[in-house]
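One such shown below:
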Amino acid sequence: MPKAERRSRQRFVTRLPVGVRNPAGATEVTAHTRDVSTNGVFLYSECRMTVGSDVELVLILPPELTAGEKCWVCCHARVLRVEQGPGTDFGVAAEIRRMDILPEIPI
């Protein structure tokens, strides 16, 4: 019997680069998303994360999640699940607790 769907929001399958760090600002690691919604993200990282830990995620959200304009955001999230991913990567499911839109920096 298939598992019941527990997601409350539509997920968008998209591979986006993500900067990940703990809120204390220690080392930043890179990762990439598998899918994103307004309240959660699943990403792959070479760094194993701890279930229950808080993380900051910096990424560019696609237009489908931002009413037409892509934008940089900093998400404060909590790690809900960690599983072995492809190769040496770990799959990480995280609940987004807060999302701050970052200002555009002209180059």
User: Anything to note?
Assistant: The beta strands are 12-13, 17-21, 29-36, 40-45, 54-61, 71-84, 90-101.
